[in-house]
Amino acid sequence: MNNAAPIPLFPPLVARLLAPLPAGPLSLALGHVARTMAARHPGLFARLGPHAEKRFLIDPTDLPFCFLIWPTPSRPRIEVRRSVPAAAWDSRIAGPLAALLGMVHGAYDGDALFFSRDIVIEGDTEAALALRNAIDDAEIDLFTEAAASLGAMGRLAGQRLHPLARTASRITGVALTRTEETA
After folding, report:
1. What is the Cα Rg of the chain in Å?
2. From CA 168, how far away is CA 101, in angstroms rounded?
């Protein structure tokens, strides 16, 4: 990904179509992915140290919902919410979905996104930095993690669909997977 290119925004029409989706089932699915990821990458959660008990709000500003994450190693949780009061989180990371995905997949530098104001960090910045460093160190690919959470058949399907996701990343400019260059 070219960091000089503008960060794509999620299409507003699609965001409006997603608005009525029920948060509960999505929370259950994402929680399952988080627990699978914890089993596959125990170092990710260990690297958070004391920040593993913090509550992180990941707030894609171009989506009609946000994600409240508890990275507790024994049972990580993700809740999909429409909004979250400031008292409910320790650290908030907000920005366009493409910037947040790009940061996870190594396509964008978190410091550059922060200093260019493409993302905003509020609350416990030390916890946000620990989270970013832990994710960077684990070299997470969210597409692969989601597929792995579905078991052996999901992993096989993920392997077969990964090239399609990389192609979609090139076309849209959104880092849907960790690319070969960043892997």
Report:
1. 16
2. 14
Helices vs. strands in the chain: H and E counts, helices first: 8, 5
CA gap 32, 148 in Å, rounded: 10
Whole-model pTM: value is 0.90
Bridge partners for 59 per DSSP: 94
User: Which residue do the tokens 């959104």 mark?
Assistant: 174
Overall fold of domain 12-139: Nonspecific Lipid-transfer Protein; Chain A (3.30.1050)
Give tens-digit pLDDT for 70-122: 999 889 999 999 999 989 999 999 999 999 999 999 999 989 999 999 999 99
DSSP lists the bridge partners of residue 66 as: 81
Residue 132, classed as helix, strand or coil, is: helix
> Residue 53 belongs to what H/E stretch?
none
Could you give the CA distance from residue 156 to residue 173 in angstroms, rounded to a whole number? 26
The contacts of residue 35 (CB under 8 Å, 6+ apart) are 75, 76, 149
- Checking if the pLDDT of 33 tops 50, the result is yes
